[in-house]
Each structure stands twice: as structure tokens, then as C-alpha cells.
Design goal:
The chain is an alpha/beta fold. Helices cover about 40% and strands about 15% of the residues. It is built from 15 helices and 13 strands. The strands form two sheets. It has a seven-stranded parallel β-sheet with strand order 3-2-1-4-5-6-7, with helices on both faces. A six-stranded parallel β-sheet has the order 10-9-8-11-12-13, with helices on both faces. The protein is globular and about 70 Å long.
Length: about 425
């Protein structure tokens, strides 16, 4: 009898959720279906989910995929309403706001009473619905993906009850994620969180990550005999090819898309752009979920630059915007150079537009980026290098050619997923 080609995917983020967290398994599911598999997605009903941003257009990418939605019980919507009056505007994303005593107290509560994370209220609902499904249908493969890493607790519970090939996917690190340092965690809370992580890493059939290197070595200390496989984020070739690269004329167009926080070193490049704007006509377009205080700061520092903030836009429009640019900026979260290669970075590279990133120039990520003919990762303090790179792009308007970029397409990466994970 042929083995079932059904794959149960547990993911908190799913369209109409927008942002980066949804894209990895949205695209894996899309291409698994095209490769003859049957992905079954178990997720949160968007009426109850704590999604920072919404992108209804992403639902087009997952048409025909079977999706099961459950309720949940969690505090983040109330947290957001408390500080902004909106159920989404203050949902944490990429940083923890600790300005003022009330926010510090909220961060302490989140870090010490909601372990491993504030979305753990989904676990009992997901576990019940997944158990019912597994009792009725023949499914051999289970994927849980985090953040939120509490999703893996459901995987652990299901593994105990059913014969499953269960892989836990770490899109980002768990206990060592950079923003945990802002949650005022007590020693016992850190210990409890690490115990959760250890149980998952040891008991899953395998661990998926977006990068290897230091991240794998960190996890191997917890489970030296575990199977670790890195399948990076990528770019969707269909999406990239849906629009041509046509940079604006008569102006040097600089673009940044995505989340921008105080955990990223964006300030030094503003000084260089301000200096160059005295000789060149520059437009700086930003799109994404960016706090008003940061946008106001950028406007103040670039008085002679035509700055446009588009707010959060659809994924398709974001790609179109990058293809209208002469230069794409990429600000790495501090300390995250060894923890992830973002899908946004791969999309940047796939557009053929020059890319300037900021982070640790000695990191493996820097070596990866520098493979591009017009791509670099520089330290925030390298003013001479930053100015030189930007001026070279202004003077020559080059195209950035990245070697073997096709192997980073979502379709090719899904083939790798099938070979390395679903064959078991």
C-alpha cells in the first residue's frame, strides 16, 4: 500500500495574516500541493488571532489548500487595546516596547507568566482538533513551526499519541532570541523556558531551521544526537517575475521594506543619504509596520530627501516597490546575523537591485550577501564604506547579479523539504 502523502502543518500564522512569519509555510504548502502532496494546515481562526498585520491578497497563494481553523485564548489583543485602543497596533513585532513603567510591568508579565510565549493559549485548542483529525485520517507527517514556539508543545503531545514523523521548524531561535533580554525574565522563568525547548529539540524526529552554522551548534548542545536540517527562506519566482525591474528615472530611488525597529542600525545611513542629497536628487521610500516616532526621526534627518512612507502594503506591492529602486537597504536585527536569512533578503537579491545591508561584516551572513555583484554588508560605523557603496550605485546604476539564485526559489526549497524531511 502506498504511504499517505498527507502532511499536517501546524502554524499560527496563515493568510490573511501578513508579515514575514506567514510566508515560509504558506509557500511550502503551495508548492507541496504542486508537487503532488496534500498539505493540511491547522491554524488559528483570524477572528481570534493576534496578527500584527493583515494581507488579504496572500489568500490567493493558498487557494485549494485544505485549512482547518480553531479558536484560541490569549492576551495580546487586550495588551494592544490597553496601549493603543486598537486590537492590532501594539502587538509586539521584532522588539519589546519598555518605555514607561506600565510597559515595563507588561513586559515582565509577558516574560514570566506566559512561557514559552503569549500565544500558548492556542495549544489546547490545536491539540484537540489535531487529535480528532489524526484519529480519523491516515497522516504520517507532522510539521510544527514557530514562533510562536508554543506551537511545538502541540507537536510533542501528538507525537506521544500517534505514530508520526514529526519535525519542529525553528524559523527563529527560541530561548536565545534577541528580544528575550527585554522581557525582565527571572532565573526560574529562563530555566522553565529552556526546559520546554530542550524537550522539543530532544523528542522531535528532527529539527528544521532557516540557517545552520552557529544556530545548529547551539541546539546540538541540547540534543547532540538529533537530526538538524537547514532549509532557508527563499523567494517566490512567480511573484518576482510578475513585474519587471524598472527603476525610476531622474531620481535616485532608495527603498526599504519590512519591519523597522530600534533594534536595527538604521541611523548611520541616514547621515550619508543626507550628505549625498546635497549633490543628488534622492527619493527614500519605506513600506512596512514602522512606528511613527521612527518615521518622524527619518524625516527630520533627511530634510532634502523626498521621503515617502507607504505604511504596510501587500506583499505584491512591496515586490513591485523594490523593483522600482536603484538601491535596497536591509537592516539586520542586532545579533541576528547567525540566526536567520530572511525571505525579504532573498527577494531583494532576486530582484537584481543592488543591496546594502547593515550588521556584522565578519558574519556568515555577510559572506553570503557579498556573493552578489553589487551587494554588501557593512558595519554601522563604516561611514566611508557606506558612502562609497552608495556613490558607486548612483554613478553606474548597476544590476546586482547573484550566483545560482534559482536554487533559493520557494519551489526548489520545497523539493529539498520533500527529499530531506518527508521521505522518512
Amino acid at each position: 500500500m502506498a504511504k499517505s502523502k498527507k502532511v499536517l502543518i501546524l502554524t499560527y500564522y496563515w493568510p490573511p495574516s501578513g508579515g514575514s512569519g506567514v510566508q515560509r509555510w504558506m509557500y511550502f504548502a503551495k508548492y507541496l500541493k504542486k508537487l503532488g502532496w496534500e498539505p493540511i494546515v491547522l491554524t488559528v481562526d483570524d477572528q481570534f488571532a493576534s496578527y500584527p498585520v493583515i494581507d488579504q491578497t496572500l489568500e490567493e497563494q493558498v487557494k485549494g489548500i485544505r485549512v482547518i481553523k480553531t479558536t484560541t485564548r490569549e492576551p495580546l489583543r487586550w495588551y494592544s487595546k490597553l496601549f493603543s485602543g486598537s486590537s492590532t497596533n501594539e502587538i509586539p513585532q521584532g522588539e519589546v516596547n519598555t518605555k514607561g513603567l506600565t510597559r515595563k510591568i507588561a513586559a515582565f508579565i509577558r516574560g514570566n507568566f506566559f512561557i514559552p510565549d503569549a500565544r500558548k493559549g492556542w495549544v489546547p485548542f490545536a491539540t484537540k482538533v489535531a487529535s480528532d483529525l489524526l484519529q480519523k485520517e491516515t497522516i504520517h507527517h507532522l510539521i510544527t513551526t514557530g514562533p510562536p514556539h508554543s506551537t511545538h508543545l502541540t507537536g510533542q503531545a501528538l507525537k506521544k499519541k500517534f505514530q508520526l514523523n514529526w519535525w519542529a521548524d525553528f524559523r527563529d531561535p527560541w530561548s536565545t532570541i534577541f528580544y528575550n533580554q527585554d522581557l525582565y525574565r527571572l532565573a526560574r522563568s529562563i530555566k522553565k523556558d529552556k526546559a520546554f525547548e530542550k524537550n522539543i529539540v530532544q523528542n522531535a524526529d528532527g529539527i528544521l531551521t532557516t540557517v545552520s552554522g552557529a544556530f545548529h551548534e547551539e541546539l546540538k548542545v541540547i540534543a547532540p544526537n538529533q537530526r538538524f536540517i537547514a532549509i532557508p527562506n527563499g523567494y517566490d519566482e512567480e511573484l518576482i517575475n510578475s513585474s519587471e525591474r524598472v527603476p525610476l528615472e531622474d531620481v535616485f530611488h532608495v527603498v526599504y521594506t519590512g519591519l523597522l525597529t530600534h533594534n536595527q542600525d538604521y541611523k548611520p545611513v541616514l547621515e550619508i543619504l543626507s550628505k549625498l542629497s546635497k549633490k543628488h536628487k534622492i527619493r527614500f521610500s519605506l513600506a512596512g509596520n514602522i512606528r511613527k516616532e521612527i518615521i518622524d526621526e527619518i524625516r527630520e534627518k533627511l530634510p532634502e530627501v523626498h521621503m515617502i512612507y507607504l505604511g504596510y502594503i501587500t506583499h505584491k506591492k512591496a515586490v513591485d516597490l523594490t523593483k522600482s529602486a536603484h538601491l535596497l537597504l536591509n537592516f539586520i536585527f542586532r545579533g541576528a546575523e547567525t540566526q536567520m536569512i530572511s525571505g525579504k533578503l532573498l527577494e531583494y537579491l532576486a530582484t537584481g537591485t543592488p543591496v546594502l545591508s547593515f550588521g556584522d561584516p565578519t558574519s556568515p551572513l555577510a559572506n553570503f550577501i557579498k556573493q552578489g555583484s553589487h551587494a554588501d554588508l557593512l558595519d554601522k560605523s563604516d561611514n566611508k564604506g557606506i558612502q562609497s557603496f552608495i556613490e558607486s550605485v548612483i554613478d553606474t546604476t548597476p544590476q546586482n547579479n547573484f550566483p545560482n539564485i534559482q536554487k533559493w526559489s520557494r519551489k526548489e526549497l520545497t523539493k529539498d523539504l520533500v527529499k530531506s524531511v518527508l521521505h522518512s
